[in-house]
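Fold these two proteins, one after the other.
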Amino acid sequence: MHIVGELMKGFLLPRRIEEFKPEFLARAQELFPADVEFFKANLQGALPAVSLVGETALLTAFANDVSPNLIFAQQLFGLGRREDVLLAISTSGNSDNVLFAVEVAKIMGIKVVAMTGRRGGRLRHLSDVSICVPAEGSYAIQELHLPIYHMICIAAENEFFGA
């Protein structure tokens, strides 16, 4: 969920909507002229992102009624598009719920970037890009993932919003 926050709002760079969504401001001027300056000052360019762990009602309903191993795969199947990228995170690289989501991504033509531990597990081999940090314990792997996903967010922001 933290990564989604970094992608959906400005992280390090300004993301002024007048530069990225001028058509939005033009339409806002037609419909809500009193609010245009407020929108301009506060809305930011966003990279569409969702966290597959955030929909608690869906996760519990699907896990109870269908299969807990497919909770992420189901969401990806419903929301994913060919031009998307799945960031799959598993410290062991062998989490069934993550692996099934990756398999669905591959079937749908969605690119997969994996973050995992030293060995990488099955996830390492299923992904288009695998980032295997040099650690073994979950806590150590998670600590090493933090700067990496921040760098991924910085790189994406530079690519889409940099000068």
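Now the second one:
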Amino acid sequence: MRQLREGDRGAVVDMLQWGLTRARWPLRADGVFGNKTLRAVQAFQGQNGLAPDGVAGDLTWAALTPYITGQALPGRPIVPTAIRWSSDLLTLVVEGLGARYPFLASETIGSSAMGKPIQLMRIGEGARRVGYNATHHANEWITTPLLLKFLERYAACYVRGGTLGWVPCARLYREFTLEIVPMVNPDGVDLVTDALSHAAPEYLRAVQIAAAFPRIPFPLGWKANIEGIDLNLGYPAGWELAREIKYAQGFVTYAPRDFVGPYPLAAPESAAMYRHALQAGYELILAYHTQGELIFWRYEGFDPPGAYQLARRMETASGYAMAETPPGSSHAGYRDWFITRFNRPGFTIEAGRGTSPLPLSQFDQIYRDNIGILLLGMAGLL
């Protein structure tokens, strides 16, 4: 974990402030390590037998981790929904969910360009397998807590013997295996949420890339992985057509968004998702993006059996509209490839409205709108 001190900013400071709040030193998570945060760190350090120097180093983070993971707070929610996310926060939340719900499995399916783990969580023991993923695009990170909150709610429901919607959680658990990849693009998220050190060579390279595209805000307009490849334009489904479209729009080299890469699956993140899906045997996938409140349910002439009917049910459950992918945005996406490769239902869900990154003030509404879609990803196959 990064050492933090007064004057630091970013999503890791948000996490520090959130952890201190959970440790009974309440702070507003504004991502700024100011005087109030300094005093809270010092008080927490003194309470835990540490030198009260006000610097959040390894020992302070170690003492704070049980509060962030929820292990020191039985019964309290683990997944935060009111702070910015980072790859470090994801790691701690995955740890916390696994500790509280030992039947949740986790694994690393690959590594990002910077070597960060691409993490997967699994629930259920059924033969029918479905896969949900989020945050192919860096500035769409609000979809990460969306999937994790659903997973936490499902796990708690299973423990209680309750229901999600109209379906007993025990039945879902028995009949389905759900796999979630909550953050496909950890490096890009860290860039967008200011969790990446400004001294890191990858950050400095991203600054250089962004300088060639002054109309795209930096870092908030960044969608690509840290190398400047748009992960959701890197799959082998109409990749050449995607290249033609994006080249015509001026994205002919590494960019904050819309560069398809030098060849399909050039980015390690897309390659990891591709490899895992080949062996997973999913009956259905949901790929979460922002924004537009739309459900994209087919690709080109492919019309997987049952996809239209299920999309109609998702439309009713969410209030989102079924839609055809605009020509300028079509081809080479994860859902596009899944449909062409397996001819099974695959949906891209565009959550929320506005300009990405969407404000966290939208989260509760996004979750309410999407709980039915997330449930139908399993229950709709029954």
